[in-house]
Amino acid sequence: MTAVGERDAAPAAGPPGEEAKPAAVRAAMRWHQSSRSDRAWRRLLVGFGLTIPVLLVGIAALLAHGAWPALKKFGGGFLTGSQWDPVSDAFGGWPFVFGTLASSLIAVLIAVPLSIGLALFLTELAPRWLAAPIGFATELLAAIPSVVYGLWGIFVLVPFLRDWVETPLSDRLGGHLGIFEGPAYGPGLLSGGVILAIMIVPFVSAVSREVISAVPRAQREAALALGATRWETTWQIVLPFARAGLIGAVMLGLGRAIGETMAVTMVIGNTPQVPHSLFGPAYTMASVLANEFAEASGDVHRSALMLVALLLLGITLVINACARALVWHVNRGPGGSR
Amino acid sequence: MTAHTFRDRRRRAVNRLMLALTGVCAVLTVVPLVLIFGYLLREGASSIDLAFLTHTPKPTGETGGGMANGIVGTLEMVGLAALIGLPVAIGAGMYLAESTGSRFATAVRFTADVLNGVPSIVTGIFVYLLVVVPTGGFSALAGSIALATMLVPMVTRTTEEMVRLVPREMLEGGLALGLPRWRTMLGIVLPAARGGIITGALVGIARIAGETAPLLFTALGNQFWQLDPRHPTAALPLQIFSYAISPYDDWHRQAWAGALLLILLVLTLSLGARLVFGRPERRA
Fold it and tell me: With an 8 Å Cβ cutoff, is A13 touching chain B?
């Protein structure tokens, strides 16, 4: 093998730790310079690796191709137009963009304090016998399929919110605050936001836990030794130290919420309008795809839906890429040098 | 009482209050879990009977019938997706684990994470354009391809981590004995990482088994038996969805039964895998 390796003089980028080894060993360890079967093996693995970027590019390209007619027809007005009428071929995506952003924002507002509180409880406070089952419970929550959340949402969460949250709020505060106005239907923006919040808590708290655990112990001990209380240590030392990673965790949660389809579709009311209050029925980008794509009435309709999908993809890609970059940064590189 | 001790007392009170609040957060996140499982058991357990497991759906509005075709359809599509996706994912994972320094590998790693975040409904539309339109119809095969597209990035990353945990000396030892690289990796490194890779694969399979959105425009669903993967096929999540939003009480009952069955399937796969083969390291 060594002989074969030496024949090939082209320098290869080996793993960083291997620079210290003698040149002959390095050459032998290099992948693509040894026997013919190994070169084939290498090519095979690279081919498998290549499928992943190819899939991502393929998704973007096919959607862009499908969305092109609608993009040409409606242009930038698609984002601001709020009329969605397949019968007269008038398509504006604003109600969906609004519904997606608003429901996800509600979800994040509810889920972030809960998740970080939970992560702090599990990392800083809870004894092992308590942390283990609670951690397990959040993993179970993460494993529940979206459609099961939706089913539970329709028959349990929505009636509960309508009778115990929306109706009282609308009765007491509806006259003063616009967002609490109007009849409490049940299915609507708030229901969508709450079910999303329940769904992203396990995810955000798991990432937050990792990030908080990565804060060096010495940081905490120093603060405690200076006389800080446990909470002061957490609030003034641990959380600021973990800030970048926590922002990443929140953005990953936001990305999840924005792309979530089934559960939201089942509880948000599916009405293409910008609701006047928190309780009004709304629609999200993912939901309109789920409801209308299979039976889209014409080419323009289908293309407009693909434009919605492209927008959805774009938003989630940007959010996820930023979040990953942040979490990677905190974990010191993409898994390699940890 | 001096101002100093007053401040200390306040600090201690804040400390206790805030720590208690983190405990409240923990309780609040567990409550939905208890409620969801409670309702699933209460509504679902009473509805699962032999007819539910062995019959196909009755025509709209009629009581009775079951989801037998959906159960089989889900198993069929998930199995096909695993056949398509796992070799690619395990290969890609081995590639990533072996290529630490390379810039291309870093890019692949990053796109795998980003692909993991692509909404499943978008994946469904992608496969609709890629498979359903060219082949001229909805099919179980298209559904499997959509599920496999979701499976690949997940399993790639867990495989990479598991292979990376294998001591490098094992690879070096194999190479030093004169084995070709591919035999060292397939015969020594991969078996050493086997438990973790299988767990990762089963957890990924559990996740795609519960997916509904990618099947909406690929497998479409079916009221009848369909085992040929070239035709529209029923799936458990699809049936739960359409029954849940229907106006019929009997269909609601069956939706709960289906949900209980689905969650049992998902939990058996993911928890069983961890118990039997050990747990892979979690990552974001």
Answer: yes
Cβ pairs A/B, distance under 8 A: 299
Phi and psi at B220, nearest 5°, equal: 70, -40
> What digits encode the pLDDT tens for the residues A216-259?
999 999 999 999 999 999 999 999 999 999 999 999 999 999 99
Query: Does A6 have pLDDT greater than 60?
Result: no
Overall number of domains in chain B = 2
Q: Are residues B20 and B98 in the same domain?
A: no
Helix, strand, or coil (residue B48): coil
Cross-chain residue pair A290–B267, CB shorter than 8 Å: no
- Domain assignment of residue B18, given as a range: 2-47
Distances (CA, A) of A291 to A70, A92, B117: 19, 16, 21
Are B25 and B68 in the same domain? Answer: no
Q: Looking at this predicted complex, what is its ipTM?
A: 0.93
Tell whether A95 lies on the interface with B, counting CB pairs under 8 A. no
- Does A191 have pLDDT greater than 80? yes
Residue B272 pLDDT exceeds 60 = yes
Q: Which of B84, B110, B125 should one mutate to test binding to chain A, selecting the residue with the greatest count of A CBs within 10 A?
A: B125
Compute CA distances B53 → B43, B254, B261, whole Å: 16, 11, 10
Is the CB of residue B150 less than 8 Å from the CB of residue B127? Answer: no
The shortest C-alpha distance from B275 to chain A (Å) reads 13
Tell me, yes or no, if A148 comes closer than 8 A to chain B by beta carbon: yes
pLDDT for residue A20 = 58
Instruction: Label residue A23 by pLDDT band (50, 70, 90).
Output: low
Tell me the C-alpha distance between A199 and A215, whole Å: 26
Chain A residues lying within 8 Å of B104, measured CB to CB: 49
Partner B contacted by A126 (CB < 8 A): yes
pLDDT at A333 over 60: no
Q: Which domains, from first to last, does chain A contain?
A: 91-332 (1.10.3720.10)
Whether residue B36 is found in the same domain as residue B107: no
B40 and A31 within 8 Å at the Cβ level: the answer is: no
